[in-house]
Input
Amino acid sequence: MSPFTSVSSLLRSPVSDGQVSLRGWIYRTRSSGKIVFAVVRDSTGIIQVTIKKGNLPDEQFQEAVSASIESSVEVTGTMHQDGRAPGGYEVRASSFKVVGPALPFPITEYQSEELLLDNRHLWIRSREQTAVMKVKATLLAGAREWLAENEFTEVTPPIFTQNACEGGVTLFKLKYFDREAYLSQSAQMYLESLIFSLEKVYSITPSFRAEKSRTPRHLTEYWHMELEEAWVDNDGNMKIQEELVSAMVAKVLKERREELELLKRDIEPLKAVVPPFKRLRYSDMIELLKKKGFDIEFGADLGAVEERAITEEEVAPVFVTNFPKECKAFYMKEDPEDPRTYKCADLLAPFGFGEVIGGSERETDLNKILQRLEAAGIPEDPYRWYLDLRRYGSVPHSGFGLGVERIAKWVCNLEHIRDAIPYPRTVARVYP
Ligand code: NSS
Output
């Protein structure tokens, strides 16, 4: 067993007067003559260590005096209650060792966003970034738990593809030996093919979009959780979404209170994330937006500004259903009750966060798909295999794609999506 105890377990069950050992990185340090106060950080929290001359060999005391921020250290000592220390306890060191010294850390308290992004490999050590990564991991764990309970099989679709699932504009093209290929925008079509063996499938993969616009909610590389379900219509698809998202948020509320607090995230509204979510028709949305003074007509896509107006007074996510065909992709099922529209839904997160999921029932009528491809001038050839799915035992089916960073941005209440991913890729940045 490791002789080292994590900071959070030390603070959870303090061993008063007994010996403890911990290791981590120096988060803050100050010294005044005969005593050094070093706050040590590990992956679980921070704790104050006091190193007093006379309590340990002199050369160790000197090491503590000169140990700089972000040096890695090992400490042994005894725990004592101290109301002034973070967490209410301090460790009085009887031994102190620098494992890896640190040069002067390039990140100090107030830094420009650019400098933080250039030093992303160092900035990800910050407590905020650590908290976001933990919340994100818990969101994914919550999703995987729910998916296993509901008998979805995880599959591994390709990333190199010749299909433009979400339109040509945002494709990353690349040379694939002597051919042309793209980086995947969505696993959807491959997932559609996999329901014929597995019925209910999901994948969590990177998706790539050559988004030229700089917005606080677009990355060029993001993590995409996609589900596809045989024998499910658009209503059933929405039920799956609201249950899945609620389970993800519930797990975070159960396991990540400290991180949410550190991020100053008010948890009360998150408690309202329970099924069912509100369902609003796109056409009603347009009327509502007009009343709010928007100059908008049926047929216009909803952008960030419209989504904000729709969701700013909501506490829980809302579905917007029945988008006009011109706003959406060719693979969606026409709604027989309103053939101007598709049986589809976007899920918008509340408080103006906007779209976190795009989903639909899929068109099963081969001729309709062929007509739409032709009308859009999309060559059929790369889609031959996809069209086959409608020829061999096609079934009603639906699916959706959830933007993992979009959900994390909302749950952590972040201003910018780049803080929901350790190494954000945007039009302006692929380093580090
Ligand atoms: O384009 S989507 O709305 N839909 C699809 O890709 C479908 N083919 C998914 C499916 O049915 N299997 O993207 C889905 C979600 C969207 O709601 C966002 O949450 C997220 O993917 N998304 C993004 N996140 C971050 N950055 C960018 N650029 C981005 N684009 C979409």
Summary: The two ends are 36 Å apart (CA to CA). The pocket of NSS is lined by residues 165-166, 186, 188, 209, 211, 218-219, 222, 224, 226, 355-359, 399-401, 403, 405-406 (CB under 6 Å).
